[in-house]
Amino acid sequence: MNNPILLIIQREFLTRVRKKTFLLMTLLAPLLLAAVMIVPGILASMPEDDKAIIVLDEPSILLPSEGTEQFSLDYLNPSEFDLELAKQFLRESDKDALLYIPSGNGWDPDFIKNNVLLYGKEDIGIDLQRFIERQLEEKINNQKLIQQGVDPEVVTQTKTQVSVKSFTLGEEDGNEETSATPLKMGLGYIAGILIYFFIFFYAVQVMRGVIEEKTSRIVEVIISSVRPRQLMMGKILGIGLVGVVQFLIWVILSGTIYTVVSTFIYPEIFAQQVPMGPDAPDLSQVDQSNIFAMINSINFPVVLGGFVFYFFGGYFLYSALFAALGSAIDQEADSQQFMLPVTAPMIIAITTAMNVIQDPNGPLAFWMSMIPLTSPISMMIRLPFGVPVWQMALSAALLVGTFFGVVALAGKIYRVGILMYGKKVTWKELYKWLKY
Fold first, then answer.
1. Is 116 exposed, middle or buried (0-12, 13-18, 19+ CB in 10 A)?
2. Choosing a second label site near 53 at 20 to 30 A (CA), which of 10, 146, 188, 412?
3. Which residues pair with 173 in a beta bridge?
């Protein structure tokens, strides 16, 4: 293997995979990811803390409501208790909270809705407060309907839920696909986030590797045998290969851990994650063919191919920029003045991700997916929705062309800066290096 770039790739790859930090991160990251997916289910399955609430209901709004299994209501007699006595009763009892509903001008909804008080021995939880608000809103709304001569049961019966089935109309007759917008939104957003984190994580490793070799003076020995541009490309490709191996290990281990836990250890937890109760969907009535049609409407080969292309394209583009920055400075602390301008396009792409998801074929989405510095994230978000072939080809061509242009410019900075020590570099100085 006489090619110097291949030798550098081998050196970068073997040096990093043999480090304890690589092994530690490779093993811990899937555990953390699996924990993020599993722990919420475990916490959701834990029994909730029941609350006992004392109610001083002067206008008798809530009567005869008995609360719920989590929130129980115990009523005080308004003829025997006022607010101060009820507070004292709460302090001396084992109850958790006191709800006070004043009568005001009789049964006046407008007065009551602004004067209800809730006291707790500790800070009132948001669930308890929402429960009380929902109960009172329902009672007050029903009372308003009665005052207007309307039966609340009639209003309840007139409420109708409408379910609209959406389709994507093809260019030919009969070529219709079931729309899967929520699924596409989730897939696009997750893919864009993954692209962002992986590009940033591994591109920064390139910069740190360059700084380490520069400060240790190892680069002076390496430069005697290879050209600076060959060293830069070898480092980029070597660390990129490390990223691919680490990513594949993460996917395999995370999937294995999640499958084992959900199947053998805590299967009941994952069963409980299906919505239950009166508002839950009737799964027996779900059109299974409609679900498969939604999944089939996504072109997964294009999405996976786009993920691989934009992962490598974005990584190569930004790693070349970070390699140039690493060669221009002596310490990582000096990189802060250059980091923001370089990473700003990625940050903009992430902050506009929701706008792109909401209108994946709009002008903002189009231009964000064409600009090479933002296209790895923005185009990845658009791909599940279906992107015209000419737009994908144009975006890919611009990204590849920009990469070669950036490599040429970064190579000039790298060639000069890699052997320069003890000098604070400015943007003006970098511009001079580009003209050498």
1. middle
2. 146
3. none
Q: If DSSP codes are grouped into helix, strand and coil, which group holds residue 79? A: coil
Q: Does residue 237 sit in the same domain as residue 127?
A: no
135 in any annotated domain: yes
Statement to judge: residues 146 and 211 lie in one domain: no
- Gap between the Cα atoms of 301 and 175, Å rounded: 20
Q: Tokens in use for 323?
A: 């390699």
Q: What is the pLDDT of residues 271-323, one digit of tens each?
A: 544 444 444 444 444 454 555 556 666 777 888 888 889 988 888 888 888 88
For residues 309 and 362, state if they share a domain: yes
* One-letter amino acid for residue 377 of the chain: I
Range of the domain at 77: 51-154
90-128 confidence digits (pLDDT tens): 888 888 888 888 876 666 777 777 788 888 878 777 888
Q: What is the pTM of this model?
A: 0.64
Number of structural domains in the chain: 2
Closest CA to 353 of 380, 373, 378, 387: 378
Q: List, in order, residues 6 or more apart from 115 with CB less than 8 Å away.
A: 102, 104
Shared domain for 92 and 188, answered yes or no, is no
- Does an H or E element contain 71, and which? strand 71-75
